Amino acid sequence: MQKICPDPLIWNKIYVKLKRNWVENGQEGTHPPKPLVVDLWANSTDSEKAERWQQTLAWALEHQCYALVTKVEDEQMYSIAS
């Protein structure tokens, strides 16, 4: 199985945490990448989902809040057959 990104509900919760952290730190730089959830989930490819998740991980690392995205369990990930 290839892990693509967190399931939509989990991904949105992570986004809320990242955005809250960004606001609390004075909104320095760009805002966190928006998750592909709700309508965006249905209208995006697995490749687009994976790319956006990687952008989210990179953003979190750059903004010193990577710990907020590393606690995703395997069963909380959207995966596809390899």
Automatic annotation (TrEMBL):
This is Uncharacterized protein. It comes from Sessilibacter corallicola. The lineage of its organism: Bacteria, Pseudomonadati, Pseudomonadota, Gammaproteobacteria, Cellvibrionales.
